[in-house]
Design brief:
Elements: E1 2-5, H1 11-19, E2 26-30, H2 33-42, E3 47-50, H3 56-62, E4 70-73, H4 82-94, E5 100-105, H5 112-118, E6 119-127, E7 134-142
Parallel strand pairs: 1-2, 1-4, 2-3, 4-5
Antiparallel strand pairs: 5-7, 6-7
Length: about 150
């Protein structure tokens, strides 16, 4: 199961559905109902839910989803209000097995130290084709003391 937080217009959702295993599923959460409707059209193989990412635990419970293989995070995590970040990361901490999250960013390397405090291992891929250049933090294994760094 792939969970996408902040689907927007659905470009990452679409990309993921085109490349995921045929038996995989993706659920994308987007707060703006107009963007969610657009993402549904762009990525019909995805289940796009209009809802708040802070409610991800309840949204997945409503869908009877208890296992997540990867989280694709399009939210501006460092800029989110503390309570929202805390709810999202507390949900991640309940997931069985090591958490794997890919965080999109338009500020390459700026938040690398923060993610290294939150996760056991963090790799970074620079994406020059993005305008402005951006990147992806690939984060593995949420640390036990993550809450102190939110």
């Amino acid at each position: 199961m792939i969970v996408e937080l902040g689907a927007g217009l659905g470009p990452i959702t679409t990309h993921a559905t085109q490349r995921m295993h045929p038996e995989s599923r993706i659920i994308a959460i987007e707060r703006d109902p107009d963007l969610a409707a657009y993402a549904r059209q762009a990525a019909p193989r995805a289940l796009v839910i209009s809802g708040d990412a802070a409610d991800v635990a309840a949204i997945l419970a409503d869908q009877a989803i208890d296992r997540v293989d990867v989280i694709v995070n399009g939210l501006p995590t460092p800029s989110l209000p503390h309570e929202i970040k805390r709810r999202i990361f507390d949900w991640m901490a309940t997931l069985p097995g090591p958490v794997m999250m890919s965080q999109l960013t338009v500020m390459p390397w700026v938040y690398l130290p923060m993610y290294r405090h939150l996760f056991e291992r963090v790799d970074f891929d620079l994406v020059l084709a993005n305008v402005p250049p951006g990147g992806i933090y690939h984060c593995h294994g949420l640390r036990e003391g993550y809450a102190a760094w939110l």
